[in-house]
Write a structure and sequence with these properties.
heterotrimer; A: mainly alpha; MetI-like fold; 2 domains; 15 helices; B: alpha/beta; two-stranded parallel ribbon; 13 strands
Chain lengths: 415, 337, 388
């Protein structure tokens, strides 16, 4: 019997039981009420919920326990036994609950304790997610770093995994050169594209935010803001298609018209499109920050005779700077981790160059390529995807940390 | 509160219903090479459209990724068939054995030529394997020593060739096409060159060889613009874009179905799929899928797959394979060189 | 005096010039962003609109024993390769279902081959001159037409471009979104309620808060790696299933929902909480009877925005195997499914040129859906927004 059936039967068995438990509990409560023995401590509904909880919780507990044991490979309880075991436990729980229901029972308090516990559990899931992400990359990454030293990985300038492929293909000769996994060219490509994106997003995003918060009337704002937000809502795969089909050829043609040569997989096209994608990110965050500055600062500045632009440049921007900086950092981490645009429009060639018209590759492209390519699963290059993922994760975390610190440290408090 | 409860209950019921019928897997699951993917998907679709079986699910995971999933075990949650643009490796076979996938049928169903293509307006280009190797290798012999590849123009390699810049768009290291290219072109050529001292397969990374995606329309656009550039493609892709690109002659032969089938064209590889015998009788439609795939209607000389770029096996070989599948001839370790 | 007045007025003039310059720069920036949006949609529409119409040919089908064996024989030599094979292969089945058709000839409007479609739309095609002549004659006889492309909406994916559609991807998207919602909404709201209303102010709570901000910034592709390692490899969720995709996207949407829900809960004034507590409600009763209902519109808006994001996401799904050829509609959450963005990606990397306009058309459908979701969110926000 498969897991799916198990779950199906579990719910099919449990749901009617739960309904039954609720009504049984309530009935008991109603009897108390009719007898006039019900105290103010609980209401009849709460008895119902109490019975239900005490029935479901132990059964769920049994299930989770069996599941954990199964996952950890300690013991696999046969599905049928598990099912009956869980239902038996559920019935026992129900009997116990019904037994313990008495007019003086503080059902509400007990229920709320359970609720708190579940709320807490939900909050813990977010921690588990982070843990899961770290765990899912770290083991394979360690395998990779056992062969390639960390230093070689972060400082090497040659990324040529050719012979890793051969080793996977069992055709590597004794004297074959060692594959080189210097990630510098890959990070160079990533940073180059991010840089281009920022060159587009920062001025356009920031200036639009300033216009919307300081110059525009309510009407313009009501139209412009949602329009910009549409940009944020466009899926990245669509941006990628646009970059590959429209922008890349355009860049090549433009470059040709001024006598330059550009690759079709140039870094400029995905960079530009990514920049556009990030505009609303920066503009809405900056807009919030600028608008949060108290009106008194503006009025003070105008009273001194400053023009609007002077107020913005000399009063508002400095006051909003921490918020804006942290918005930039978040935008940078967004750009670094962006996948679809670069997968569709950027190149595959690890290339250490300053020329954005050449093809470059990025971390995310390598990850996708290594995990969906024809490589053998245990080849070093496949493992390198996890090492790159780990590095990417670390960079994002660090950027986020810096941005949190910037906000905490420099945020001005206005009263 | 009551409404919310009702919604949650409703959702749970829907959820359970969704879970329910899933158990007996009624779809064939196929994973593997992205080169074989279009052929496999075509057959799958045909099966779904013309029979009562559901359409098999075909996922392009790459040959290695496919083998990994395939060899995970005999359970029903593992794929039934793995496509590959190269032969199964010994290590992969051993992993199959170790994990309980003991019975595997190997089916070679056709060829794929690897073409070196250029702009259709260029004069025809004649290259030898040695020319190509010297153009893309990281190091080349000069005076009996291996030195960093200095060649920038074709006529530096071979004076018979035109003075034309070397620029080659080819598959990345993660691609099976690259593996095949290295094996069929570079290994074959370097074996005969003394200085390499055996086989040599490293490709230069100074920008002369530009790794690009295989099915990249951008490369074709590049070739139509840049008359110097060459692209390395699978034959099916060349066929699709005949109006824009033409294939170079390699050792005096152009990739054509006839020359590839006969083996005259040196740069061609075989395409395979591997069948998990344990699932063959359990998954409905799987036997039919395999039979349909190897039927004359699909892989024959005038089969549908030819229309999307497959190169047919010779007649005897096709019969041989059908025989093999019918007999359920299993793959053994000795078969894999 | 006069002189200094001159300088100051000149300086004033300069300052006003600077002011104007700055203002126009700001306007320019905004216009640039909007201009991009316009070109973006214009390009997609111009590329994609043609896919909503599909060439059809009026052709005689002869139902004979031969055409049951070899569907291609059902049509005349001349048009055999001009009509879609995807239609012809259904002939044996039609015969099986309607035996009375046997040995009759019927006239149908049949969907045309992709190259014919390209030709009739005036695009580059690979038809041979002879075929073009035949088509010209058919055109003159009124036997060609461009009809609304119902196949695009009613079919699943196909390797034959003219009958490829987005139905299975759309339904797959619905499945995945439903699972995403089922997972991320309760967990997200519960987390937010915990953090806002119950959590003690200690290290652990702060760690959770920092962590949630981190999660929001983690690249989506890493969620894909998580889905692959944890859900598929450890929990044994079937690969490429809606369940794998939904859970992965659910985790990804979680921080969005938590953050917006917290904002919505925070917007409920304390006076309401105090009033509830004052009449003897417990904290939980206060939350469930007052705070949550009042913040519900905000929570809903945030959830819709989070779901819209999840609907457009592709990268993590690429890793959990949803980039596959799945023309059938998934029957359950554990069956293989594909989603709209994944479909767009597979089509965009197809070598057949006929797929390009279909890709753009699928994008248009996706964008319309996403815009609708966003409008809904904005509408809800505006309708229920309350000033305290």
């Amino acid at each position: 019997m498969s897991t799916q059936y198990l779950i199906l039967f579990f719910f099919c068995g449990l749901v009617p039981l739960a309904v039954m438990a609720y009504f049984l509990g309530r009935r008991k409560g109603r009897i108390f009420k009719e007898e006039g023995r019900l105290s103010f401590l609980s209401q009849i509904d709460q008895f119902g919920w109490y019975a239900l909880t005490w029935m479901i919780l132990p059964a769920l507990g049994v299930f989770v326990l069996a599941f954990l044991l199964h996952i950890l490979g300690i013991i696999s309880v046969p599905a049928v036994i598990l099912l009956f075991g869980a239902l038996t436990v559920a019935l026992a729980g129900l009997a116990q609950a019904l037994h313990s229901i008495s007019p003086g029972l503080r059902a509400r308090q007990k229920l709320e304790k359970v609720i708190y516990f579940f709320l807490f559990l939900a909050a813990v899931i977010s921690i588990l997610t982070t843990l899961g992400i770290v765990l899912s990359v770290i083991f394979e990454a360690i395998k990779f770093f056992q062969v390639v030293s960390v230093w070689e990985f972060i400082s090497g300038t040659q990324w040529s995994p050719d012979t890793a492929f051969l080793q996977g293909a069992e055709r590597a000769g004794e004297e074959a050169a060692k594959p080189q996994f210097g990630a510098v060219p890959i990070f160079a490509g990533t940073f180059m594209i991010t840089f281009i994106a920022m060159c587009v997003a920062i001025p356009v995003g920031l200036l639009s935010a300033i216009y919307m918060s300081e110059y525009a009337g309510d009407k313009v704002r009501a139209v412009a803001k949602p329009l910009l937000e549409i940009l944020a809502g466009i899926p990245t795969v669509v941006y990628g298609f646009f970059a590959a089909i429209t922008v890349s050829p355009l860049v090549v043609r433009l470059a040709e018209s001024v006598g330059l040569e550009a690759d079709y997989t140039n870094a400029l096209a995905p960079g530009l499109v990514m920049g556009i994608m990030i505009i609303p990110f920066i503009s809405s965050l900056s807009d919030d920050v600028i608008r949060a500055i108290p009106q008194s600062l503006r009025e003070g500045s105008y009273a001194l005779g400053l023009t609007t632009s002077e107020t913005i440049k000399q009063v508002l921007l400095p006051a909003a700077l921490p918020g804006i900086v942290s918005a930039f950092l978040l935008a940078v981490s967004r750009a670094l981790g962006e996948t679809m645009i670069v997968v569709m429009a950027a190149g595959l060639r690890p290339n250490l160059t300053m020329n954005p018209l050449e093809g470059m590759t990025t971390v995310t492209v390598r990850i996708v390529d290594a995990l969906t390519g024809d490589l053998a699963f245990d080849s070093l290059e496949t493992l390198s995807a996890f090492a790159l993922g780990l590095t990417l994760l670390l960079i994002t975390l660090i950027l986020n940390l810096i941005s949190t610190i910037v906000i905490r440290k420099f945020k001005q408090k206005y009263e | 509160m009551k409404t919310m409860l009702r919604i949650i209950l409703g959702a749970l019921v829907v959820f359970c219903l969704g879970m329910g019928p899933a158990q007996a897997r009624e779809q064939v699951k196929i994973v593997g090479s992205s080169t074989v993917y279009p052929f496999s998907a075509y057959v799958a679709e045909e099966l779904g459209a013309t029979t009562r079986y559901p359409t098999p699910v075909v996922e392009a995971t790459g040959s290695g990724g496919g083998m990994k999933l395939f060899s995970e075990g005999p359970g029903m949650d593992t794929p039934d068939i793995s496509n590959a643009s190269r032969r199964m490796k010994k290590s992969e076979y051993e992993r199959c054995q170790k994990n309980g996938v003991e019975e595997v049928i190997e089916v070679m169903f056709g060829y794929d030529g690897i073409a070196l293509a250029q702009n259709v307006e260029n004069p025809p280009l004649h290259l030898s394997l040695k020319d190509i190797t010297l153009a893309v290798a990281r190091e080349v012999p000069q005076g009996g020593e291996l030195v960093e590849n200095p060649y920038k123009y074709w006529d530096e390699i071979n004076p018979d060739l035109a003075h034309r810049e070397i620029l080659i768009y080819g598959p990345p290291t993660t691609s099976g096409t690259r593996d095949a290219f290295e094996e069929l072109v570079m290994e074959a050529a370097t074996e005969e060159i003394e200085a390499y001292n055996g086989e040599y397969t490293q490709i230069r990374s100074d920008g002369v060889y530009v790794p690009s995606g295989e099915n990249d329309n951008l490369i074709v656009q590049r070739l139509t613009k840049d008359q110097d550039a060459l692209g390395i493609f699978g034959y099916s892709y060349l066929d699709e874009n005949r109006d824009r690109i033409q294939a170079a002659f390699i050792q005096g032969v152009q990739p054509e179905p006839e020359t590839i089938t006969s083996g005259e064209y040196p740069v061609s590889r075989s395409l395979y799929f591997y069948v998990k015998v344990a699932h063959l009788d359990k998954v409905p439609g799987m036997q039919e899928y395999v039979d349909l795939f190897i039927s004359e209607k699909m892989i024959g000389e005038f089969g549908y797959l030819k229309g999307i770029g497959l190169i047919a096996l010779p007649k005897e070989k096709r019969d041989e394979i059908r025989e093999k599948v019918e007999q359920r001839d299993l793959l053994a370790l000795e078969d894999l060189s | 005096m006069n002189n200094s007045g001159n300088t100051s007025s000149r300086r004033l003039y300069k300052r006003y010039r600077a002011e104007k310059r700055f203002k126009s720069l700001c306007i320019l920036a905004l216009c640039l962003a909007v201009a991009f949006l316009v070109t973006f949609f214009a390009t997609l529409i111009s590329k994609g609109y043609s896919a909503f119409r599909q060439a059809e040919l009026r052709v005689e089908i002869s139902f004979t024993e031969q055409s049951r064996q070899m569907p291609l024989a059902a049509v005349g030599d001349e048009v055999r390769y001009l009509v879609s094979r995807g239609w012809l292969r259904k002939v044996p089945r039609m015969l099986k279902e309607n035996p009375e058709l046997m040995d009759t000839t019927q006239k149908y409007w049949i969907v045309a081959e992709a190259e014919v479609d390209q030709y009739l739309k005036g695009k580059a095609n690979k038809l041979r001159p002879k075929q073009q002549e035949v088509l010209k004659r058919l055109e003159a006889e009124g036997r060609t037409r461009l009809a609304f492309n119902t196949y695009f909406f009613l079919n699943g994916d196909s390797k034959i471009p003219e009958i490829a559609g987005i139905k299975s991807a759309l339904i797959g998207s619905v499945y995945v979104l439903f699972l995403t919602l089922l997972f991320s909404f309760p967990v997200g709201v519960m987390t937010a309620v915990y953090l806002e209303e119950f959590a003690p102010d200690n290290r652990f709570t702060q760690a959770i808060e920092v962590n949630i901000n981190n999660l929001a910034a983690i690249p989506s592709i890493l969620y894909g790696l998580l889905g692959l390692a944890i859900f598929i490899n450890t929990f044994g969720v079937p690969r490429s299933s809606a369940l794998a995709g939904g859970l992965t996207l659910g985790l990804m949407t979680l921080p969005v929902i938590i953050i917006t829900t917290r904002a919505a809960i925070r917007a409920v004034p304390d006076s309401i909480r105090e009033a509830a507590l004052g009449v003897g409600a417990s904290r939980w009763q206060m939350v469930i009877h007052h705070v949550l209902p009042l913040s519900f519109p905000g929570i809903l808006t945030g959830t819709i925005i989070g779901l819209a994001q999840a609907m457009g996401e592709t990268a993590p799904l690429l890793i959990v195997g949803m980039m596959a050829f799945i023309p059938d509609i998934p029957g359950s959450f554990t069956q293989a499914a594909t989603v709209l963005p994944a479909q767009i990606y597979t089509w965009s990397s197809s070598s057949l040129r006929a797929f390009e306009s279909r890709t753009a058309a699928a994008i248009l459908v996706l964008l319309v859906l996403l815009l609708l979701m966003n409008f809904l969110a904005v509408y809800l926000r505006q309708k229920f927004q309350r000033k305290w």
